[in-house]
Every structure is written in structure tokens, then in C-alpha cells.
């Protein structure tokens, strides 16, 4: 028995309705996506699935929690998201996104031309290498106080530089859209950028003293990205999960 | 005038000769690849171009050197490789590789099935996120001596964990080839792995006391990858460049 990836019509923008088609993934069970609402990496996948009208992935919390031995038996790094494909699996959000694009190409979250696709992938890679990597390394250091001050300073400089790279790459691409990162439709870059900037703007700026680290063009992009319903929904899920975490201690 | 990407017949394996075809890239000048022989990231691109028989990219050293203001005007991170496409450009080796695959698909360095392609991309991402990132961060710390000992220890633990992730992901894919990382032909994963392991095995092990950090399966893969002529040529270029750097100071 193969799982049929079904289409949820409520999420189809009118301009893209003709692109939707039922897609079969040849698996004996539904794909399981290990994820959590708080994760900006998982948010990318949720944005992508909804933009494509795919609503049949099983969303599952990592058993034992992030980084637990129980979950590392599933994904060696202990990170989310992880897409379990009936035995084998795919880790790393950027890789999962490319896989979903290949399996369910329409509506595409990559532009048509190889040059524009490369610019989308460059922005995604830039977020992964130069923004989220230093940003999330600050968390354990914050608890160490004074003794970690120097290490923290280096990470903040990295993060600030990373935000600059992202802005520069987008501006130099010659393809910056008015509402989206590249071009005039939602791409994989938008999910990556929105998730990362949510954490920079809502947490890193205040907690790490990073005011003015987000270049004006990027901040403006972040505000317009919120007008996309799939981005808005994912960011709201992060917000709700963050509030719940804060309330729980 | 468009640049014609020419085919160099000497590099065509007999089994793939029928795949070769002249490819036109619509640019008014030859693509310029900023690179250096010592870089494992640039080595991936050299391996890919030769495997495809493309010999018309201009290889150029970064003007002013890596990280210089002069070169950052070209690529904001100051890193190589960077592919200049007649005005705009593409940074990050993983992104450049995907672009070259899209422009010049044959012979492909990605497998046919989306599942196997995802495993190749996962290994590339794993090298970029968890191996080369901590490894090259150790260099400035080595010069700081005792004061950087704790930070160095953390990076080495990260690097060791990263080598474990790479090995695990490959073994769990169910697609590990006998001569190549995934399947039985050269893929983008092989270039990434070979370049990174060259530095781990030839420098990090001795300089950083990292003996036994490379899992046996990975070490065996590294040895068999050297039988691929394009991998061997790129690794030799790294070796020659490293010797020259050592001799020069």
C-alpha cells in the first residue's frame, strides 16, 4: 500500500490552483516528520508542505527529546527535523526541503532558472552556516555567565557578520523581490530566513544585546514575509511554543 | 557571444563517453571560478568540472587573498570558491555544485532517485556543518596556546562527533557503495568527503591529537576514493599546495 499525499484545498492560492495535483509517494506507510513547533528548521518544512498543499505527513515529537539517546538512535545528531521514510531517513532541513521539491515539484518553491535557484540555495546555506549555527551556540554560554563572556562575544560577532552576508548576497543577486527574498513568489529561502530572523528579532536582540544587527533591508523583508499565510502560520506556531516554554519555566 | 563549455576527452571514462555533449552557457564571457588549490571546498568543484569534462572555467586566485577587503568586494564572506557569472555570482561550494549539475547535467554527479540524491546531499551538508566548520576554526586557536585550550577542546569534540555523524548517515542510508560514498559512481558527496578527510587525516590527526577520530568505514572509503582519477588529481593539488605553503613558511 502506498501513501497518497493529499491536497488540502484551503491552502492553495488562487493563482496557483491549476498547479495542484495528487502525488503518490511509494511508501508502505505515511512519511513521519520528527519536528517541534519551536524549531525554525522544522518551520521551513511546515511552510513548504502547506504551500504545496501536502497534509498527510505525520508530525511527531522527537522521542526522549532533542539530543536524547533515544532520539539519536533515529537521527545521529539528535536534531530536528528528520524525515523517516519507512526505514531509512533524511536529516537536515535544507536536504529535506530539496527532497520534498523533487518528490512534489508543484507548486515549486524554487524558481525556474538555474541562476535564480542558485541564489535561493545560497541564502538557505547562508542562514544555516552563518546565522543559526552561531545563534544557537550562544544558548549554553548564556547560562555560564562571566566565564563565557569572551566566547559569547565571538559568537555574536559571527552572527552579526552572518546577517550582513545574507543581506549582501540577496542585494547582489539582482533578484530581490518586493515581498519575497528572491523573485515574487515564496521560495525555500523565505522559510529559512523567516525562521532564523524570528529568533534574532524576538530573542537574540534583547537577550544578547544585538540591537541594530539586522540590516534594514532584511528587517523589511521579514515584515513583508509575515504577509504570506504559510509563513505567518509557522511563525505563530513558533511564538505559541515559545510562550508555552516560557510559562513552563 | 556565449561561452561554449568545451569537453576534454582525456577525462572521459569509457563507460560514460556516450553521455558527453557540448554545453552552452549563455554568458558573454567565460565563467570565472575564484579558487585555490589548497581549498577542500574548491577541490569539490575541480573534481566535478573534470568529471564532466568541462575545461573552460577560468580559475583565478582571490585578489588580495582570502578574507581581504579586496576579495570581500567580490564575495562578502571572503571565502572560496566563488563562481562569477558575468556580474552576479554564486558563493558556497555546495551551492555552486548544484548549479553546475543543473547547467551541465551529464555525466551526473547526483544519483537518479530522489531518495539517493537526498542521501548524497545529506553527506555534503554533514561535511559542511559538522566537519569542516569546527576543523577550520581550530587554526586561529592553535596559535593562542594554553589560553585557548578549553575552546579548542570543544571544537575537537565537535569535529569528532561530526565524523561520527557522517559515518552513521552513510551506513544508515543503505546505499553505501564499495568505491564511492553512495552507490557505485562518483557523486557530489565524494568530493566533499575526500577534501575534508584529506585535512583530517593529514593535518588534524597529528596536529590536534585526533588519532582514532575517523571511523574505520570512513577511512576505508577515503582510501578507495583515491582510486578515482579526478579525486586523486584534486587531492594531489591540495598536497602540492600544502607543501609549497609549508616550504614558504
UniProtKB/TrEMBL annotation, chains A, B:
Q: Which domain of life is it from?
A: Bacteria
Do you know which PROSITE patterns this protein is assigned to?
A: GST_CTER (PS50405), GST_NTER (PS50404)
Coiled-coil intervals: none
Name all GST C-terminal domain ranges.
113-249
Query: What is a single molecular function from GO for this protein?
Result: maleylacetoacetate isomerase activity
Family matches, as SUPFAM superfamilies: GST C-terminal domain-like, Thioredoxin-like
Any idea which UniProt keywords this protein has? Answer: Transferase
Identification of the protein by name: Glutathione S-transferase family protein
* Species of provenance: Halioglobus maricola
Q: What is the lineage of its organism?
A: Bacteria, Pseudomonadati, Pseudomonadota, Gammaproteobacteria, Cellvibrionales
Amino acid at each position: 500500500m502506498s501513501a497518497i499525499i493529499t491536497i488540502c484545498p484551503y491552502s492553495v492560492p488562487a493563482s496557483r490552483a491549476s498547479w495542484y495535483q495528487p502525488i503518490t509517494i511509494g511508501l508502505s506507510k505515511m512519511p513521519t516528520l520528527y519536528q517541534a513547533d519551536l524549531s525554525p528548521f522544522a518551520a521551513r518544512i511546515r511552510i513548504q508542505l502547506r504551500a504545496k498543499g501536502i497534509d498527510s505527513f505525520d508530525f511527531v515529537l522527537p522521542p526522549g527529546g532533542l539530543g536524547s539517546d533515544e532520539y539519536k538512535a533515529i537521527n545521529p545528531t539528535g536534531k530536528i527535523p528528520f524525515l523517516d521514510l519507512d526505514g531509512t531517513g533524511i536529516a537536515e532541513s535544507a536536504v529535506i526541503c530539496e527532497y520534498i521539491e523533487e518528490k512534489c515539484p508543484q507548486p515549486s518553491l524554487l524558481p525556474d532558472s538555474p541562476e535564480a535557484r542558485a541564489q535561493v540555495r545560497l541564502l538557505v546555506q547562508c542562514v544555516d552556516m552563518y546565522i543559526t549555527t552561531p545563534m544557537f551556540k550562544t544558548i549554553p554560554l548564556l547560562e555560564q555567565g562571566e566565564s563565557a563572556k569572551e566566547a559569547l562575544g565571538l559568537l555574536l560577532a559571527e552572527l552579526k557578520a552572518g546577517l550582513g552576508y545574507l543581506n549582501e548576497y540577496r542585494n547582489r543577486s539582482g533578484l530581490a523581490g518586493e515581498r519575497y527574498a528572491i523573485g515574487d513568489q515564496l521560495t525555500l529561502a523565505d522559510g529559512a530566513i523567516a525562521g532564523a530572523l524570528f529568533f534574532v528579532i524576538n530573542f537574540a536582540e534583547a537577550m544578547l544585546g544585538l540591537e541594530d544587527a539586522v540590516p534594514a533591508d532584511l528587517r523589511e523583508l521579514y515584515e513583508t514575509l509575515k504577509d504570506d499565510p504559510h509563513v505567518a502560520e509557522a511563525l505563530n506556531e513558533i511564538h505559541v511554543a515559545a510562550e508555552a516554554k516560557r510559562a513552563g519555566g
